[in-house]
Amino acid sequence: MVNIFSTKWIVSGSVGVCLLYFRNGFMVRLILGSGLNSVASKLLKRTFNLSRPSVAIEQGHDDPGFPSSHAHMLAFLASFLSLESRKYLQASGSGDFYFSFTSLFPLTISWSLVCTLLWLSAFFGGYLRVRMQRHTLTQVVAGFVSGSIGGYSWYLLQDVYREEINYAVTVANAEYPRATIAALVCFSMVGWIFLAFYGKVLSKRKES
After folding, report:
1. CA–CA gap between residue 148 and residue 126 (Å, rounded)
2. H/E stretch holding 84
3. Measured between alpha carbons, how far is 122 from 80 in angstroms, rounded to an integer?
4. Which of 32, 78, 109, 206 has the greatest number of CB atoms lying within 10 Å of its CB?
5. Please, are residues 33 and 154 in contact by the beta-carbon 8 Å criterion?
6. Can you give the C-alpha Rg of the chain in angstroms?
7. 80: nearest Cα among 27, 32, 152
């Protein structure tokens, strides 16, 4: 039975709602990057095939634990959003930037505040994974390393096609609003269905 109150469903549901509400290039790029990194973290787990702490296994979490997928995704989001936020802060309220810190603080201070908030949130999430004994400290640190690399790599890759993606989404919203919403709904549903089943396949621990 699927637990809709688990972290992955709460996060994916929230992202889906944001995608349908904002319908901009940034959300499309963020979700594509998140999906690719989520799969990458599962493949890394499958490759290393190292078990979780005994307490986690006793609670039914018997999939591999290295690196921590939660830590990987937290670090991906923190690194990608830290890099991405600088461009939006520089925009100072233009385009699809919905609020401006630069009206209150200089750019450097504004960006530092955003980065600090993102990384403190990520580190707190990683701390909870160790505190709850779902992962060892080594597994969480490895997740932060792999997620940071994933976030930086995706930022560089998507930045090459930033303008094309933003333009395509803007045109689709303007000329085909209903079709765009329908496509995003289908995209979200496919993503949720995939999320429900791919983890069982990719994360299943190989027999020693």
Report:
1. 13
2. helix 69-91
3. 12
4. 78
5. yes
6. 18
7. 152
